[in-house]
Amino acid sequence: MGEIGELHIGGAGLARGYRNRPDLTGERFVANPFGAGRLYKTGDLARYLPDGNVEFLGRGDHQVKVRGFRIELGEIEAVLDRHPGVRRSVVTVHEDRSGKSLFDAENKRLVAYVVPDWRRQSEAGDEEDADSGQAQVSQWGQLWDLAYAREAPEDDPTFNVSGWNDSYTGAPIRADHMREWVDTTVRRILSLGPDRVLEIGCGTGMLLFRVAPHCSHYCGSDIAPNALRYIERHKDHFAGDWSTIRLRRGAADNFDDLAPGTFDTVIINSVLQMFPSIDYLVDVLAKAVRTVTPGGAVFVGDIRARPLFGSIPWRHPTGSGPGWAVPGRALAAGAKGHGHGGATGPGSGLLYCPETVSPRHQPRGDPASPWRCPQ
């Protein structure tokens, strides 16, 4: 009398067992030590009172009953603990703030508390970001491969501006504006005195056909095979020695076959906005810096400034700014925005934050002029 124990029930109304659960039936339905038949182990804690009543004292395990359903809290905790970002979890039953009794079935709810595993969560997040970034790069490659499949202009195949649309109006950019942009970019690249050049994202060769004749070696790299086939198909229009040209297919971060110090100039022009993340950008720039010789340059052109991006919806832009030469170890940084210029029109793109470059490395006078940093 008065001792606490597990409540067992039996009698004519006792069930035969759990349907299709022989293991659980054998665990819960046990032989009756006091007579014939079996007893069911309820898992409830109870004791006899002196007046003959049975006092219910709760559960002997973590099972709860919510709105008529028996729930094993441990099973929920086990599922939560399998998540890579969870170090430990506890699930319990809470009542809402209405003030009703905890034993009001309609008032109870399950609440889980977790202790995060920040290390595993960070690793899992990095893997997800990397997978997402690679998927975005692959999608860009497919999109541009379709764009580069278009027919070349008959008058000048080296000046193929098909698909270059205004980021403000969505209309094709005027040819004279594009030619001014190309000529300005080429002039600034040539002012660096390039001889051995790697261009990341060479496209249909608007820069290649104009810069490569001044170089002893020019490697044009692009993720879209149709772009490389286009250049190869129109090599007769190249003004220099075609044997100095190498075309390679690969994403911007693929430097596997490029040895350190192979080039004196790396060009990343009008492709930065299509990078999937700032981490991808930093990785590409770091690899590009290792590829250039001491005193060489990494030319990053046709980029959009994050501080100026908010003004685009209210006033017509004057055009894409010219590129900056970023030699040495200077790494630009960006932030995701709502769109970018170039050949795709409005859409998600990477924006550039000038504040991430040390003020002592910034140019004096014209902020758009080329500038250098020490190797």
Automatic annotation (TrEMBL):
Transport as UniProt keyword: no
Q: Which GO terms describe its molecular function?
A: methyltransferase activity; phosphopantetheine binding
SUPFAM superfamilies cross-referenced by the UniProt entry: Acetyl-CoA synthetase-like, S-adenosyl-L-methionine-dependent methyltransferases
- GO cellular component assignments: cytosol
Pfam entry (one): Methyltransf_12
Q: What's the protein called, per UniProt?
A: Methyltransferase domain-containing protein
GO BP terms, alphabetized: amino acid activation for nonribosomal peptide biosynthetic process; methylation; secondary metabolite biosynthetic process
Q: Which residues form the Methyltransferase type domain?
A: 198-297
The UniProt entry, under InterPro entries, shows:
AMP-bd_C_sf (IPR045851), Methyltransf_12 (IPR013217), SAM-dependent_MTases_sf (IPR029063)
- Report residue spans for region: Disordered: 335-375
CDD domains, A to Z = AdoMet_MTases (cd02440)
The answer to whether the entry has keyword Transferase is yes
Q: What is the lineage of its organism?
A: Bacteria, Pseudomonadati, Pseudomonadota, Gammaproteobacteria, Candidatus Kentrum
Which UniProt key words apply to this protein? Answer: Methyltransferase, Transferase
